[in-house]
């Protein structure tokens, strides 16, 4: 007898979602919706999928290499599909079974652990989220009353049960009478615990959920800049003026840190480089503060619906000392980019007296920027 198995219900047609494929076979990251659900459960127990007979080849492709139990063909509705899955293991039953919707691919391991722990003292357990929104009773498109949300939870999957008890409850239940297994089990008199679920477990249902299948488009851009040191009395680095016996030479204020970071953001957007948008031949930018360039890159990102998640700048120089000014630099970059300071990093290093930076002939900067595009 196995200790436990998981059944992933994947026999639906996904008619509300639309599209050429049932939603469980759509891409999700580097796998599929069904593949992601199976991979989340596979570290905890053997997994069997309940599928539509017409989807056998799609199933094989979607779960290739996952070492799953043989699939089971589902029935005309969810309740019938779960029963088919249970009956397939009735001759050699496990002690426990988890029933999970294939349309909930983003399953955190912590949720599975909470369910299994609760099952030790109950007949069943399910994750859920307390209702936070105001609830209304609506008739003919008009609100006719407010429903108290006290004690109301939205139940998710996977739902865990003692196998024998759930199978018997399914055998006794009227056909197509219940929307999920907790309702069916409670009707049979079983005690069901509810544990904290997770917002990531929201079910993929309709076209509006399509964006969640692939998630945001995460991009990383890289920037590099160098400016020569000439006689002067200060340098500007990452928007902070630092007294020094030299100055940086350039068409603008020659802020290598901001220039590198601007290029990193433009690179993540695939929008060329700083010279393309602010040509050094244009007199408009002579002596300009480089914060203008960085702010423009941030505006371009926002116009694309992108969020700048994090940026990191490394300054390479023998002098001046950067550490006394690092906090001010981070604050200025964060202000321009409208980011929390803890999402902005500024570091400094030397080149061990080697090369043009080691000889004090110039300052270099490298930067990376991580963006999330829709």
Explain this structure:
This protein folds into 2 domains: 4-213, Alpha-Beta Complex (Spore Coat Polysaccharide Biosynthesis Protein SpsA, Chain A), CATH 3.90.550; 217-373, 60s Ribosomal Protein L30, Chain: A. Helices cover 28% and strands 29% of the residues. The chain contains 12 helices and 19 strands. The strands form 5 sheets. Strands 1, 4, 5, 6, 7, 10, 11 and 12 form an 8-stranded mixed β-sheet that branches. Strands 16-13-19-17-18 form a 5-stranded mixed β-sheet. It is elongated and about 90 Å long. The model has no long low-confidence stretch (mean pLDDT 92).
Summarize the structure.
The protein has 374 residues and is α/β, with parallel strands linked by helices. It is built from twelve helices and 19 strands. The longest helix has 14 residues, at 256-269.
Helices, strands, pairings?
Layout: E1 4-10, E2 27-28, E3 31-32, H1 33-41, E4 47-51, H2 56-62, E5 72-73, H3 78-87, E6 96-101, H4 109-119, E7 124-130, E8 135-139, E9 142-147, E10 153-155, E11 159-162, H5 163-172, H6 181-187, E12 192-196, H7 210-214, E13 217-231, E14 234-237, E15 240-243, E16 246-248, H8 256-269, H9 274-277, H10 291-303, E17 307-316, H11 326-337, E18 344-349, H12 355-358, E19 362-373
Parallel strand pairs: 1-4, 1-6, 4-5, 7-12, 17-18
Antiparallel strand pairs: 2-3, 6-11, 7-10, 7-11, 8-9, 13-16, 13-19, 14-15, 17-19
Q: At CATH's second level, what is the architecture of the largest domain? A: Alpha-Beta Complex
Low-confidence runs = none
CATH topology of the largest domain: Spore Coat Polysaccharide Biosynthesis Protein SpsA, Chain A
Taking the sheet with the most strands, its summary is: 8 strands, mixed
């Amino acid at each position: 007898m196995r200790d436990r198995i998981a059944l992933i219900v994947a026999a639906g047609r996904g008619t509300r979602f639309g599209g050429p494929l049932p939603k469980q076979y759509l891409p999700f990251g580097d796998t599929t919706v069904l593949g992601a659900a199976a991979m989340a459960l596979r570290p905890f127990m053997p997994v069997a999928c309940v599928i539509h007979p017409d989807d056998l080849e799609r199933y094989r492709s979607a779960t290739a290499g996952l070492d799953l139990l043989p699939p089971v063909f589902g029935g005309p509705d969810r309740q019938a599909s779960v029963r088919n899955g249970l009956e397939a293991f009735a001759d050699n039953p496990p002690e426990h079974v988890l029933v999970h919707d294939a349309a909930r691919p983003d399953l955190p391991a912590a949720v599975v652990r909470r369910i299994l722990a609760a099952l030790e003292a109950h007949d069943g357990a399910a994750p859920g989220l307390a209702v936070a929104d105001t609830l209304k009773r609506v008739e003919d498109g008009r609100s006719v009353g407010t429903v108290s949300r006290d004690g109301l939870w939205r139940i998710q999957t996977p739902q865990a049960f003692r196998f024998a008890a759930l199978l018997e409850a399914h055998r006794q239940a009227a056909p197509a009478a219940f929307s999920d297994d907790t309702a069916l089990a409670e009707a049979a008199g079983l005690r069901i615990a509810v544990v904290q679920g997770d917002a990531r477990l929201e079910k993929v249902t309709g076209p509006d959920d399509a964006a969640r299948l692939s998630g945001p488009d995460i991009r990383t851009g890289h920037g590099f800049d160098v400016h020569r040191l000439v006689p002067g009395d200060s340098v500007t680095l990452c928007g902070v003026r630092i007294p020094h016996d030299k100055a940086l030479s350039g068409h603008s204020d020659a802020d290598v840190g901001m220039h590198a970071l601007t290029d990193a953001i433009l690179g993540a957007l695939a929008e060329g480089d700083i010279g393309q948008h602010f040509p050094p031949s244009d007199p408009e930018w002579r002596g300009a503060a480089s914060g203008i360039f960085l702010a423009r890159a941030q505006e371009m990102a926002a116009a694309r619906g992108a969020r700048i998640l994090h940026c990191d700048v490394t300054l390479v120089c023998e002098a001046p000392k950067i550490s006394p000014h690092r906090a001010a630099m981070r604050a200025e970059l964060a202000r321009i980019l409208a980011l929390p300071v803890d999402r902005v990093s500024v570091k400094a290093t030397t080149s061990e007296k080697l090369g043009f930076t080691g000889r004090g002939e110039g300052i270099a900067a490298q930067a990376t920027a991580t963006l999330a595009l829709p």
